[in-house]
Amino acid sequence: MATTYFNDLADDFKKLYETKEDYDAIIIVGEEPNVKELQVHSFILRTRSSYFRSAFSSNWAERNNNGHLFLKKPNISALVFEIILKYLYYGIVDFQNQRNEIILELLFAADELVIQRLIDSVQEFVITNCHKFIQSNPIKMLDI
């Protein structure tokens, strides 16, 4: 019988995410004045999302002056993109401590980035807590 060490693996990838050690790609997220540059490991993103597999391919990817892969996502806020990166790197999303609007933005961003398991998780959370979403701001929720 094989022993699994998923927690160790998740901890190691969390450290890699936090230290940015040997990153090879830069993603610029958000719109002015809330723009943020995120240093990432393209291999991890390509492994976890078909969108990034294409975005970082030789057919589509751009490189900056330092040779890093370079991608702009102005339509996704830094907060939402960091939630996505935490999911991609070490599989954690904390829905409970997010505003409803952020959770809905996360759903749209996960759909754009073709991260199906995250889409499913966000949808399940929204369905389970739909009354909270409607109560918090019914006009905005219906508008979204």
Key phrases:
144 residues; 4-stranded mixed sheet; 8 helices; 12% strand
Average residue pLDDT: 90
Major beta-sheet overview: 4 strands, mixed
Q: Report the C-alpha radius of gyration, rounded.
A: 17 Å
Unreliable residue runs: none
Question: What is the string of helix and strand elements?
Answer: HEEHHEEHHHHH
Instruction: Give the termini distance in whole angstroms.
Output: 49 Å
Shape: globular
Kindly state the number of beta strands: 4
How large is the share of residues in beta strands?
5-15%
Number of helices: 8
The level of helicity is: 40-55%
Strand order of the largest sheet: 2-1-4-3
| Structural class determined from secondary elements | alpha+beta
Explain what you see.
This protein is of the alpha+beta class. Helices cover 55% and strands 12% of the residues. The protein has a four-stranded mixed beta sheet. A hairpin with a 6-residue loop joins strand 1 and strand 2 (36-40). InterPro entries: BTB-POZ/Galectin-3-binding, BTB/POZ_dom, SKP1/BTB/POZ_sf. This is Btb/poz domain-containing protein 19-like. It holds the Pfam family BTB. Residues 23-97 form the BTB domain.
Give a quick rundown of the structure.
The protein is α+β, with helices and mostly antiparallel strands and 144 residues long. Helix content is 55%, strand content 12%.
SSE layout and pairing:
Blueprint: H1 6-19, E1 25-29, E2 36-40, H2 42-48, H3 50-55, E3 62-63, E4 69-73, H4 78-90, H5 100-112, H6 116-128, H7 130-136, H8 138-143
